[in-house]
């Protein structure tokens, strides 16, 4: 592990935090912690997802989104909107997933331009087989990227979550 990879709890505190001077309200501090934690998770997941599923991180996000939907799938426009991705990039990613046998595409009845995407049984099985490993990777990345102060900042943003864990 390099110095840049060290968990936040092992890194020196920011000077403004040490002096007690805080310019940002708790919500903005928590947002910054959330962004940093998300970045740490994404970085770690890119490697693990490629090794275990042989798909890109963006393709993995599509699979996860479809996994939480009914077997009928979602329209491509919905997938693009929910993931905040350009439709042209999504078309390429869906084509890659389709070639791998992980998603199916079909025209939407009554809509010439509408295309619906759904997980295949192969993708469902692959996600079942790897979900424990992938969830552990997320947990570990979060644990490594957030120290006590960062967790406290997150709890300040969503206090109801902190209350339900006790």
TrEMBL record:
Domain HTH marR-type: 27-163
CDD domains xref list: HTH_ARSR (cd00090)
PANTHER family with a match to the protein in the record: MARR FAMILY REGULATORY PROTEIN (PTHR33164:SF99), TRANSCRIPTIONAL REGULATOR, MARR FAMILY (PTHR33164)
Protein name: MarR family transcriptional regulator
Source organism of the structure: Streptomyces camelliae
């Amino acid at each position: 592990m390099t110095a840049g990879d060290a968990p936040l709890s092992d890194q020196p505190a920011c000077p403004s935090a040490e002096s007690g001077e805080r310019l940002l309200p708790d919500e903005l501090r928590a947002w910054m912690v959330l962004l940093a934690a998300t970045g740490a998770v994404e970085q770690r997941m890119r490697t693990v997802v490629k090794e275990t599923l042989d798909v890109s991180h963006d393709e993995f996000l599509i699979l996860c989104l479809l996994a939480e939907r009914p077997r009928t799938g979602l329209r491509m426009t919905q997938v693009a909107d929910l993931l905040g991705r350009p439709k042209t990039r999504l078309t390429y990613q869906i084509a890659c997933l389709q070639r791998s046998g992980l998603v199916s595409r079909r025209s939407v009845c009554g809509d010439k331009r509408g295309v619906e995407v759904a997980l295949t049984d192969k993708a469902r099985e692959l996600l079942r087989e790897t979900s424990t490993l992938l969830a552990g990777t997320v947990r570990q990345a979060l644990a490594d990227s957030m120290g006590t102060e960062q967790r406290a900042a997150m709890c300040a943003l969503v206090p109801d979550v902190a209350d339900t864990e006790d």
